[in-house]
Amino acid sequence: MPLRCVLLIFLLAVAAPAPAALRYAESSAPSSLNPFLVRDMPSLRAVELVYEGLVTPPDAGRVRPLLAESWQVSDDGRQVTFRLRRDVLWHDGEPFTARDVAFTVAAGRDPRSATPLRAQFAAFAAVDVLGEHAVRFRFARKPVNPLLQFDFKILPAHLFPEGYVPADAGSRRVVGTGPFAFEAWSAGGELRLVRNPRYHRPGQPGIGAVEVSPVPDPNIRNELLRYGALDLLPQVRPRDIPALEELSGVRLYPYSTLSYSFLGFNFRNPALRDRRVRRALVHGIDRTAMLRAHYGGRGTVISGPFPSASWAYNFDVKPWEHDPARAAALLDDAGWRDRDGDGWRESETGAPLRLRLVSTATDEAQKAVVLDAEQQLRNLGVAVEVRFLEPLAWREAVFDEHAFDLVLAEWTFDHNVDVYTLFHSSQTGPGQNNLGGYADPETDRLLDESRAVPDSEALRAVYGELHRLLHDELPYAFLWSLDRYAAVSTRIEGVRLHPFYFFSYTGAWKER
Amino acid sequence: MKLTAYRHPRPGWTRPRAAVAVGLACLAPAAAGAVLAVAGWLPDPAAFAGPGNAPPSPAHWLGTDVLGRDVASRLGWAAARFAGPASLAVVVALAVGGVLGVAEGLAGPVGRRAGRWTAQALDGVPKLVLVLLAASITRSDLGWTMAVVGLTFAPQVAGAVRASIERLRARAFIEAERCLGVGATRIVLLHILWGHSRRALVSQVTGVLAYAVLVESSLSYLGGALGVQEPSASWGNMLALARDGLFHGAWLPAAAPAAAICVTLLGFRLVGAGLLGALEDRP
Amino acid sequence: MSRGVRWQWLGWAVGQAGAAAVVLLGTSLVLFLVVEAAPGRGPDRLGTVTAAAGGPVAPRDRAGWAVRYGRWVAGAVRGEFGSSTAVQRGRPVAELLGSAARRSLSLSAAAFGLAVFAAAVVAAGRRVLPGAAGVAAWGVHLASALPVFLLVYGAVVWLNPAVARGAASGWWDAPGWFPFPSRPEGAAWWLGAGLLAVGDGFLADLCDRFSAQTDAVGAAGYRVGARLLRLPRLAVAVRATVPGVADHLAGRVTFLLGSLVVLESALGWPGLGYLAWRAAAERDLPVLLAVAVLLAVVVRTAAVAAGLVRAALDPRYRGSG
Predict the structure, then answer these.
(1) How many CB atoms lie under 10 A from the CB of residue A458?
(2) Which residues of B touch A217 (CB under 8 A)?
C-alpha cells in the first residue's frame, strides 16, 4: 500500500521523542523575567517558577516558610525578624544571604528602579541585616497582617552592582532561587527553564524542564493541547470547556482567581461625572445575559469593587438590575434627550452623547462583550465608538494618556484585595491605577481608614461600607468575576494551583 | 509539439479574452454587494438582528455571525467601505508611478538617475513591511495604509511606463509630434500614457487592487490593532471573528468571507493576466 | 576571456554593489525619517534608546535628525540596532534578529525553491503532456488564489483531525506526533514552506511567467536562428530564458517576504515576520526599523544577483551596464 507508506514516512518525519518537560502556552510571550518589572500575567507566571520570596505567596490568607526558616513578629506588630535558610544557592552557585534581602528592599525603594512595586516597598521604614542569615524589617506603621507584606521575590544582590534594577534587566541576569533555572529565551518569545539541581527542597522539582511558548490563537492552543503538543493551558475559555471535558488525556482544574471585569468610566469627561448617566449606563446593559452568552454563564455578576470570591465582598449589596426603561428615564432626567429625532441623545446644546470605548482584542469573548455592550447602549441612544488596541497601546491609552471614556478591563488581586490605588484621589496621575480619575472625599476617607485599621475584622467592616458606597457611586460599571479553569495533561501529577501566582506549587508536581 | 507562428489579434473568443471575462464575472459579486450597500438595500451591518450563527433564511441570505449580525450585509458593506481606500491606492500608484516612469524615460540624465534611484529605494523595502510600518504609525488608518500600498506599487507602474516609452522611442512619432509643436504634457498624458500604455497600466491597477485586498484581509484577519476595527465590517475581521465557529460546527460565517476574498483575488488576477496576454498577442 | 575583460567585469560588479549600497542607504534614511516623525513616546526615540537603557531618566537627545541617523547607521554597521522597547523590553535588537533571520530566510528559501520547482515542472509539462499540464495550471491558479492565512487555518482545521482520525482508526501509528503549527521542524516546517510557496498567488504567477518564457523560446525565430548559426539549442534557450526569469524572481522576493510575515504571525512561528508583526502591533519602532532594513538588504541582494545573472548571460546588456 504505497499511500500508507508515504503517510508513515510523513509521520516519522514529524515524530519526535516525547520530551521530559512541562510545556505550556500563553497568549503572548512573557515580556519580562524580572519580578520588579512584571506587569502582565504571562510574565508573572513565568517569574513564579524562577524566583522565590521569603515566605510562600499567601493562599487563603496563610503563608508558610520558603527562603526564611522561621520568623518572629514583635508584640507591637511593627517589626518582623526572619531567620533565613542556610542551604539556599542562587542558580549561578552563589549563596543566598541577608544581603540579598536588604538589596531587594533598597532597590525597590530606589527611584531609579523602574518598578511598579515601589508603593509596596515604601511600607518598610528600615531593613536591618542582623547577620549572614538573619534580617529584621521595621514597618513605618503597623500593618493589619504583617506577614502578608512579604510576597515579593528576592533578587540576587551580586548581579546588580549598580544598586538598583534598571529597566532593561527584564531579559538579562535572570537568576533566582526557585525550582527552575532560566536556560534560554528565543527571539520568538519561547522560554525554556530547566530543573534546578541544587534546589533547597529535597526531591524537588519532579519535572525536568518547563517550556513556555506564545500561541496567540486560542483555538490553536486547544488543538495543541488536544493532540498532546502541550501539557498545560493556564486559562481555557469557558466555551471550550465542554469539548475539553471529553478529552481523556486532559484534566480541568478550577481555581478562583480574585479578579473581576469592569467597564471603567473616565471622570475627565463631564458627561460621565453625572451619577445619573453612569447609573443609566449600568441599567442599560444586561450583564446576566452577556455573561451567559459569551462565557457560558461561568461566573458571577458583581455589585461592587471586590471579587465575589474574596473575603471583602459584601453580599448584602445586590447588583443593579437590567432595566432599559429606568436607564432611559435617568438619561432624560440628566438632560440627554434625542432632540433632533436621529436616534442619538443630545445635550441641551445639541452635543451628542458619544463615548469612546477602548479594549484589548486578545480574546473573542471580550470582543463580543464589547460589541454587545455597544449595541445595547446604541438602543439606549448612546453612541459608543469602539476601539480595540494591542495590549501595549491599550496600556498607553488607558494609563498614560487617559484617552478613553469607557474602558473594558479586568483587575486581578492578591489576597489583600487592596483597592486603595484604584479609587483614591491621590492615584490619578499618568501610569497610576485610578485610571478614570475618580475622586470622591467619602471614598478617600474610607480608603484612608482602611490603611489605619487595627485588625482584619475592622478592615472587613470598612470594606463592606466601601462596597456599598462604590455600588452607589459607580466609578466603574462592575461586571462579573469569572470562574477560571486550567487544563493540565494527565501526564502531570500532583497538580495544585495558586489562585494568583499559579505556579507556586510546581516544585512538587511530578511527571508520569 | 506545436509550431506557433506570430499571432495576430483575432476577433472572437481568445484565451486572454476568456480570462478577462471570467475575471470580471468573479469580481461581479463584490461589486454588486458594494452597490447594494451604498444604495441602502442591505440591512444594518452592525445590528444584532437575530440569534448567533443562524443558518441561511429569507431574512438573512447567508445566515448570521456569532453575534447575530447579518453576514450578507456585512460582506456588502465591507466591499463598499473598502472601495474608497482601494481607489486611493490606485490613484497613488498611478500618480507616483507615472511621474517616476516619465522621469526615467523622458527626463534629462539627472532626472533620469533620480527617478531610477527613487524607484529602486522604494522597491527595496518589502511591501508588507512598509505597510506594517504605516499601519503601526498611523494606528491602522485604512486610508493611509492603502495609500502606502499604492506607494509600494509605484516602482512597478514606473517600470511599465518606462518600458512603453522605450518601445515608443523606436517609432519616431514622439519626435515628429515635438516637431509639430505638440505640448509635452499632451504627449505624455494622451499619447504615451493613454494611447500606448493603457493596457499595461490597467493590468498594473489590477495588481494593486489584488494586493490591496490581500493586505487588508491579512491585517484584519491577524487582528489586533493593525487591521480594520470592529464593529466596522471587513472581510478579514469577519473571518477573524468566525474562526472560533469552525471548531464549534458553524462554518458558514467563516466560509462566506473566505470565499469572497478568494473569488475577488482570483478575479483581479485573471483580469490582469488576460490584459497582459492580450498585450503580448499584439504584433 | 582576456585580462581586460575580467577587470571590466569586476568594475561592473563593484559599481552595482555601490549603487545597491547607495539605494539601501536611501531606503533606510526614508524608513528612519518616517519612524522619527511618528508620534510617540519621548524616551523611546531611536537615537536615545541606548542612553535610556542606563536608567529610567534619560536626557532627551537634542541632536538633529542627520546626526541621529548617522549614529544609527554607525550602530547598524557594528551590528547594534538599539534595544527593543516593547516586544522584549530592553533586549538588544541585534540579539532578537540573529536567530529569527536564520529561521525566516531558510523558510523563505525553501518556499522559493519549492515554487520554482513546481512552476518549472508545470511549464515543462506543457510540452510533454499539454492536457495534464493545462489542468495542473488551472489547479495551481485556483489554489494560489487562496491567501496564505487561509491556507494556514485550513491546514490547522482539517489536517490535524485527519491525522488523528487516521491514527485512531489504525491506519498508522503516530508515536510522539504533534499537531501542525506547534513547531517549525520536520514535516511541519516543509508544510509551512509549501503553503508559503502556493499562497498569495506566488505559484500562479511563477507558472504564468515560466510558461510564457517556454513559449517564447519555443517560437520559430529562436529555433531557426539557432540552427542557422549552428548554436546548441539548449544554450540558446537558457540564454534567452534565464535572465528574464531571474529578473522576475527577484521582483517576487518582496511579495514572498510579505507572505512570510503573514505565515509566521498566523502560526506564531518565531522569525523575522512574526517579529515584524509584533513590533508593528506594539509600536516597537527600533525592532521594526531593524527588521525592515534587514529585509530590504535581502530584496536588494536578490535584485543585484538578478542583474549579475543577466550580465553573465545576456551579451546585449553588459555594454549598457
Answers:
(1) 14
(2) 243
Mutate to test the interface with C, among B117, B136, B140 (most CBs of C within 10 A): B136
Tell me the C-alpha distance between C232 and C212, whole Å.
21
Q: Compute the nearest-CA separation of C159 from chain B (Å).
A: 13
Residue-wise DSSP of A372-439: HHHHHHHHTT-EEEEEEE-HHHHHIIIIIS---SEEEEEEEE-TT---HHHH-GGG-STTSS-TT---
Minimal CA separation from B180 to chain C, in Å = 32
**Chain A positions in Cβ-Cβ contact with residue C171 (cut-off 8 Å):** 4, 7
User: φ, ψ for residue A263 (rounded to 5)?
Assistant: -110, 105
Q: Which chain B residue has the Cα nearest residue C35?
A: B137
- At which residue does the C-alpha cell 525578624 appear? A81
Q: pLDDT exceeding 70 applies to what percent of chain B? A: 92
Q: Output the pTM of the full model.
A: 0.82
CATH architecture assignment, domain C3-318: Orthogonal Bundle (1.10)
The larger pLDDT score, comparing residue C107 to residue A256, is at: C107
Residue in chain B nearest A360 by alpha carbon: B224
Of A499, A16, A19, A492, the closest CA to residue A232 belongs to A492
What is the ipTM score, two decimals?
0.86
Kindly state whether C254 is in contact with chain A, defined as any CB-CB distance less than 8 angstroms. no
Q: Is C99 at the interface with chain A, CB within 8 A? A: yes
Model pLDDT, residue A433:
85
Model confidence at C56, in pLDDT bands (50, 70, 90)? Answer: very low
- Which residues of chain B neighbour C258 with C-beta distances below 8 Å? 126-129
Could you tell me if B57 and B209 are in contact, meaning their C-beta atoms sit under 8 angstroms apart?
no
Report strand pairing: A383-389 vs A510-511: unpaired
Average per-residue pLDDT for chain C: 79
- Inform me whether the C-beta atom of residue C166 falls under 8 Å from chain A C-beta atoms: yes
* Mean pLDDT value of segment B105-118: 84
Which residues lie closer than 8 Å to A308 by C-beta, 6 or more apart? A260, A300, A302, A481
